[in-house]
């Protein structure tokens, strides 16, 4: 393979730039040319494609966001969209693609591979909700940001004997809440993967203040419900403490990536290039027990594929990711 491209797709995550940089530098060292595709699959179809040399990724390793921009482009799930993208890849002489994104983006990579353009997926999202990897690029940074914010909330919470509900991101996954909650010493952590009772939380709050605690921090994953709704239900269940809600929001998506995110992004980016160099596509790179692993994106469960086709043509997730699994290993 002489010429490859790289794109970021779906939600952005800190560390994506480090992955792009690694793809570019590794590919050049392997004698390949690299093109950047702006705005994910939308930019592929629009031909928003430009050559990246080594200098183009200078000073990018520590920058948040993605300098290739990201976009959602549902049309790529349709054959017409894919063929339009392939036309552009042919025009630029691109033979393989590295796709940095989530589950949806992986499906796009699978389709490209089926059409004869090997594509490799890298897990980029703060939510840590992608199958085939213990950790995603961006998760460590998002948790670090959340912990920093909760530490600050704790200061003010203690000064006023307040109860704080802190809503964190994660879509349907509780990983950010779980890790940030443990690391910040939260009193309660509520995640979508585990049932809880509001009455128990009300009791925890009461007992804590009776014992002389001067604050109570509850970390709630957005996949459970909004912080505002949680507060309403807590009051309905009998909480009489001085309650406040803080929604951390998009600060969790930005900022300089942590060392860990930079390193796993760099390792994964380099591995993606090695795979394309060897003509391998339709796989996603992950990290398992600190080692890089690759899994077929689509196939049978026995093959270790991330997704399988149901008899009715629907897509089934094999071994869905569960929040906190890696904590209990
Ligand atoms: P994420 O990659 O973070 O899961 P999305 O689900 O929004 O985010 O997917 C990102 C993009 O990947 C979509 O906007 C679309 O361009 C492409 N995509 C999603 N699903 C498919 C699919 N089934 N086939 C081909 N491309 C897809």
From TrEMBL:
Q: Which reaction does it catalyse?
A: beta-D-fructose 6-phosphate + ATP = beta-D-fructose 1,6-bisphosphate + ADP + H(+)
Residues bound to substrate are 125-127, 162, 169-171, 222, 244, 250-253
Is Thylakoid one of the keywords? Answer: no
Cofactors named for this entry: Mg(2+)
Q: In which pathway does it act?
A: Carbohydrate degradation; glycolysis; D-glyceraldehyde 3-phosphate and glycerone phosphate from D-glucose: step 3/4
Q: Which UniProt keywords apply?
A: Allosteric enzyme, ATP-binding, Cytoplasm, Glycolysis, Kinase, Magnesium, Metal-binding, Nucleotide-binding, Transferase
- Active site per database record: 127 (proton acceptor)
- Localization of this protein: Cytoplasm
Sites where the protein binds ADP: 21-25, 154, 185-187, 211, 213-215
What are the TM regions of this chain, as residue ranges?
none
Its Gene Ontology biological processes? canonical glycolysis; fructose 1,6-bisphosphate metabolic process; fructose 6-phosphate metabolic process
Q: Which domain of life is it from?
A: Bacteria
Recorded GO CC terms: 6-phosphofructokinase complex
User: Which intervals hold domain Phosphofructokinase?
Assistant: 3-276
Q: EC number(s)?
A: 2.7.1.11
Task: Give the protein's function.
Answer: Catalyzes the phosphorylation of D-fructose 6-phosphate to fructose 1,6-bisphosphate by ATP, the first committing step of glycolysis.
Tell me its family: Belongs to the phosphofructokinase type A (PFKA) family. ATP-dependent PFK group I subfamily. Prokaryotic clade 'B1' sub-subfamily.
Spell out the subunit comment: Homotetramer.
Please report the name of this protein according to its UniProt entry: ATP-dependent 6-phosphofructokinase
Q: What's the gene?
A: pfkA
